[in-house]
Design a protein that fits this description.
This protein is mostly helical. The protein has a domain of 99 residues. The chain has 6 helices and no strands. The chain is elongated, with a radius of gyration of 32 Å. The model has no long low-confidence stretch (mean pLDDT 86).
Length: 155
């Protein structure tokens, strides 16, 4: 089994705009998995959890489509209590799934922030060209004293 693939999945290297976008898409994957895993809980015992699940799903969607840093951070913050509750419950499967979902949202946060940085660096910066000064042009008509026009004698 190739552990490099697992490492790249759970902690992707972000080195350019495309890899940052792929890492940000992990928030959407985490939101969909959270929606699927929470669906049974919502239908059976805790309908008030529906709002939390929908907010996490919206955060994942915005992190993927709009590269929203705020949505990625909010999604990670909404997953943090799930990790704490799973640790208190002691169910190993729940701890594992909450930890994986939290890690995917952390990758989404990394990806959205790096995407913003790489996108800003990729924009072409306006260049300023400094031109040498032009030589002074010859004055067509020069004035005499006190603003009188200088006349040339006619022959």
């Amino acid at each position: 089994m190739d552990f490099k693939y697992l490492q790249d999945f759970f902690w992707p290297a972000i080195k350019d705009l495309e890899s940052a976008k792929k890492a940000a898409e992990q928030g959407f994957m985490a939101a969909i998995l959270y929606l699927i895993l929470s669906f049974g809980v919502i239908l059976s015992a805790q309908p008030q959890k529906l709002l939390d699940v929908l907010v996490v799903a919206l955060c994942g969607y915005l992190a993927k489509k709009k590269q929203s840093r705020i949505a990625a951070v909010l999604g990670a913050l909404m997953m943090a209590p799930e990790v704490l509750f799973s640790l208190q419950g002691g169910d190993m499967l729940r701890i594992l799934t909450a930890g994986i979902l939290m890690l995917l949202f952390v990758n989404s946060v990394r990806g959205t922030f790096m995407y913003s940085r790489y996108a800003k660096a990729a924009k072409p910066q306006p260049t300023v060209e400094v031109l040498p000064p032009e030589p002074p042009a010859a004055a067509p008509e020069t004035q005499g004293q006190a603003g009188e026009e200088k006349t040339t004698p006619q022959s």
